Amino acid sequence: MEGVFSNKNILTIFTKWWKQLVFITVAGVIVTFGATYLISPKYKSTAVVYPGNLGVFSEESYTEQMVQLLHSRDIADSVIAKFHMAEHWGISKDDKHYKSKLYDYYYDLVSIRKTPYESVEITVLDTDPQLACDAVNAIIVFYNEKVKRLHSGKLQELIDVNVKQVDYWEREITKSREIVEQILLKAGITDFTKTLDLFSSGEFEFFDNRKYAEISQFKVKKTERKIITYKTKNLTADLDKVKNIGPMFYDHFRIYTEQLSILANFRMEKEQQEIENTKEVTYYSIVTSPYATDKKYSPMRIPIALMGGLALLLLSFIVMAIVERDSLT
User: Fold this and answer.
1) Which of 3, 137, 248, 308 has the greatest number of C-beta atoms within 10 Å?
2) What is the CA radius of gyration of the chain?
3) At 110, which helix (H) or strand (E)?
């Protein structure tokens, strides 16, 4: 026994009922086409942007980072609040599924995707073409503010660490300076600043005869003796006094100068981070700007009407096949 939906039976049904099927199909197309006018037309606004100045947040590419940030809930909340989307979409705050419906609408009408060229496409659909355009621009602005907050937070953490380091090394330098001053005072040297100038200038240095404990004299560069003489009225007396201090002074003085260098580095890092934190930086580059289009995006009436007609044709054929089942078997 052949099945109802064999090629022969299908041809038999069409031959017998073709007029009715054609009428039903045409009627279905007309009715569906008319029904599309009950659907509010939606307009699409699109922007294409490239990420910029993002820095390293993870192992993802900058484009993937941008897509992830643009999908964030706080950006969605900011857009919804700015344009009063709940009222615009007719969602009542008394609805027990208020939040769920709000986000469902948002993520249905807002599309964010990575393009094949490592840019990001932001698309918004809405019944108001100007609102769709403004929403795209707002998403970009809120994205920039979000990245700024993330960067600022990270920079502030580094600044706070450097502030603690600066405070620590300032205390350590104060201690080291006090020790060096006490050693100089014991040697009869009261001009601490002048002694530091002599050592810091590199205009004389210790001899080291392989035994650190034997360091006891200085070598003065001939070409710079005049400079040293200019700094102090009594070069010989000053050198003799410092020479008598020996390696004890040099040890603490070396620690003191190293600490000064460390402190200078932390201060410089902190200043650079503070400058970076106050910069006005954009974290995107716009390739294609959004605009308020005058051409609707949906509904596409002809494709919808054809699909409606075909669906009704298929349903009608199944009903006729059931009616003709006994005569076909």
Assistant:
1) 308
2) 41
3) strand 110-114
